[in-house]
Amino acid sequence: MGGIKLKISRLVESEARQFLPKAHHFIRHLRTCTSTTMSEALKALENASRRELQALAKELQLCRGNAKSDVILGNAMEFLDKHPKDGEQLVLAALGSRGNVTPVAKKATPKKETPKKKEKAANASVKVDTDVKDTKSKKQQPVEEPEEVESKTPEKKLTTKKAVPKENKKSKAASATATSKPTTASPAKSHKTNSKASPSTKKSPTSKTEPSSTENKKIAAKKEESVSSKKPALVSKKAEIKARKAVEALVKSVTDLTFVGDSRVRCSTTGHEMKADVDIINTYIHGKRYLKARNLKLSFAKYAPMFVDHPEESKPDMLWCNVTELAIARDEKSVKKHMVAPKYQKQLPIWKEEEVAKKKAEEEAQRRAARIEAAKKRRLEAAKEDGDAVENERPAKRKRTTPSK
């Protein structure tokens, strides 16, 4: 047994000796690989732009996309520490580089110069030109000339260059050429114009006739204004008269309408008052409210004289029953219901007898009045005849005779 154990231990030691160099070699290889990948990932993170870092943060869900680049880098380093196996590859894949990463240099976009900057640059260039000219003039001029003249000349040039652009210079040059041409031929032309203008001043009779014509025109204009001011008043009066006549004709044609004063009209069916105007009355007559009320009134005419309009004008939607002396709604159903009721049926014959008696009494009263009037006429005629006869029968009065002396 002891020999077997020794053999086994020796075998294990020999195998271990064979395996250890291989293991050490594998560990070294892993360390080199990880170091290369880590170095590549770190380089990629350092050289990554702002947009690439934002994309990395979104893909790996490190933090918000709009976070600062320092925060994103810190989170990326933590991610690499947590994921030592696949972290480097994921980072490189997210940054779009598997291997050597070369940072893309951004093209420098030229900044747009503002008008103020352009003006400053132009002024600076003008100043430089003036300085150069000053130096040249100093070299050319002799020593005896004073320095004041030298300082004045460039100031004038500065003002001209600052204020006047090239286009204005061209326009000014063109205008100067245009103005310079007539100045040469001005004396001859002016002489001709004076000779032509002189005859117009000699025409004195026209100037004398002008005031009279202007006065006549003013008088005619005043007359026209007076006539025109009178015309509208006449037209307005005629229009008012026509409108009044039209309103009166319309009110007469409709039985329900009556005048309330001079400027108001009243409808008896609905109790509505309105302005005495043709348009207003027409719109009301053709309106739904009036037509409905009128139709109801006409429809209940067959129930007269038992059912009549309510005596109170404030109740146009009600009917008055003369049989029972009660107010009923202006509705056919309610009228028929009231007619079938026992109270109405009981009092209807009594009411009819009373109506017949009233009619007889009215007829007798009318006959009496007619008889009385006829008797009065007869008496008056007889009295007239008797008076005429008496006057004829009376003897003539004796004339007084004065006694003779």
Automatic annotation (TrEMBL):
Coiled coil: none annotated. Signal peptide: none annotated. Residues 128-137, 149-170, 215-228, 378-395 have a biased composition (Basic and acidic residues). This is Uncharacterized protein. It comes from Phytophthora nicotianae. Residues 396-405 have a biased composition (Basic residues). Pfam families: SURF2. Residues 102-239, 378-405 are annotated as: Disordered. Residues 173-188, 195-214 have a biased composition (Low complexity).
